[in-house]
Amino acid sequence: MVLLLWTIAVVAQTDLSVVTGVVKDRETKALLRQANISVPGSNVSTVTNDDGRFIIKSATPIERIMVSHLGYRSRYVKVNSGSKDITVMMQPSSIMLSEVFVAPDDPVEILAMALSKIPDNFGKENRMMQAFYRETVQKRNRFIYIAEAVADLVKTGYHRSISGDRVVITKGRRLLSQRQTDTLGVKIMGGPALGMYLDLVKNRDFLLNDEELSHYELRMADAVKIEDRLQCVIELVPAAFSLPYALYHGRLYIDYETFTFTRIELELDMIDKEKATQLMLVRKPLGVKFKPKEMKSLITFKTENGLSRLNYIRTEMRFNCDWKRRFFSNSFRSVTEMVITDVYQEPKALKGASSFSTRESFYDKVMFFDDPDFWKDYNIIEPTESLENAIGKLKKNAQAK
């Protein structure tokens, strides 16, 4: 089978400074998922999980953190060594009428300018980054598969293709339900190579090229703010319906001043189920009927020292599987996430032979885990409470077998 924080506290963990916390909306008290957390003056960063919680670690003492989220004012939060039970409250950002009025309103012109500036905004030098990757599968509301890894990514300059990019797994673990009835048997799109192929700003063959864009209508949406900077928002609406493959509904977020891509949201068009299946499904056993329900992707970018880079990728799929001679179909949810947690100042050499490819099984690359300190020295996406419970149950069941 292949598929694809709590309250703030500072604790001693080997030589690392560790900060954990929760991020909420100041007005509604709603938990904010996928908020960016970073340590100012460093390349260390992470994101909040679906419970709005995070954990971030640094080799140097963390005196403050920066928290940002789409549509909210960025916050710098001071971290005291004795602080406990501190929650980060985020204030929604407002956009003055004058700002909206002076913003450009031709989506074709804005997008063309942003595409032309990619090499300058994202850099022409090679960069090596460390990333945390997680993929999970749920059958109804129960987790049946969990896999995690720390990986090194080599990103060549943004004036080049992705052919020179590499992903190498440095440490990983996985858990699989031992119930025979939980066997899924299908392989869907995913894996650590998402860090290469879903970097749409670099992998323009996927979407951001003249031929693909000609199949969409471009519309201007309301401006928003990301990290206190005004963003032009361009909506992608499918305008061609006779293509042999499915299109997307999407939003492109572009910095108004620098024309830098900051965020891309995509949702696969589900009108034609066969076309959606062709994209989502890699293979399946005979006798299984795959029914796609939803596929959403989020790609965000972060600017550091005047250059932008890949920051976070998340893809969520929902689908049903029907087996012959079974009365009921089963619903499944697959989530894959990758966050860049650090950027190496002195990149190390990676051998091409050790790189992870889309032809390989991520499941076979990592091992079963039972070490509570497995991620002791690494930045990760904090597990949600439900995921923590699932890990405990799956570990007990596997050990019992």
Brief digest:
The chain has 401 residues and is mainly beta. It has 8 helices and 22 strands.
Topology:
Blueprint: E1 8-13, E2 16-25, E3 36-38, E4 45-47, E5 53-58, E6 64-68, E7 75-78, E8 84-86, E9 88-90, H1 97-102, H2 107-116, H3 118-122, E10 127-139, E11 142-155, E12 166-176, E13 187-188, H4 194-197, H5 210-213, E14 216-226, E15 229-238, E16 248-255, E17 261-268, H6 273-280, E18 281-283, E19 288-304, E20 307-323, E21 330-343, H7 362-365, E22 367-368, H8 385-400
Parallel strand pairs: 2-9, 12-22
Antiparallel strand pairs: 1-2, 1-8, 2-5, 3-4, 3-6, 6-7, 10-11, 10-21, 11-12, 13-18, 14-15, 15-16, 16-17, 17-19, 19-20, 20-21
Q: How would you describe the overall organization of this protein?
A:
The chain is globular, with a radius of gyration of 21 Å. It has eight helices and 22 strands. The protein is mostly beta strands and 401 residues long. It has helices spanning 97-102, 107-116, 118-122, 194-197, 210-213, 273-280, 362-365, 385-400; strands at residues 8-13, 16-25, 36-38, 45-47, 53-58, 64-68, 75-78, 84-86, 88-90, 127-139, 142-155, 166-176, 187-188, 216-226, 229-238, 248-255, 261-268, 281-283, 288-304, 307-323, 330-343, 367-368. The strands form four sheets. Strands 14-15-16-17-19-20-21-10-11-12-22 form an eleven-stranded mixed sheet. Strands 1, 2, 5, 8 and 9 form a five-stranded mixed sheet that branches. A four-stranded antiparallel sheet has the order 4-3-6-7, with no helix packed on it.
Keywords:
401 residues, eleven-stranded mixed beta sheet, five-stranded mixed beta sheet, 8 helices, globular, disordered N terminus
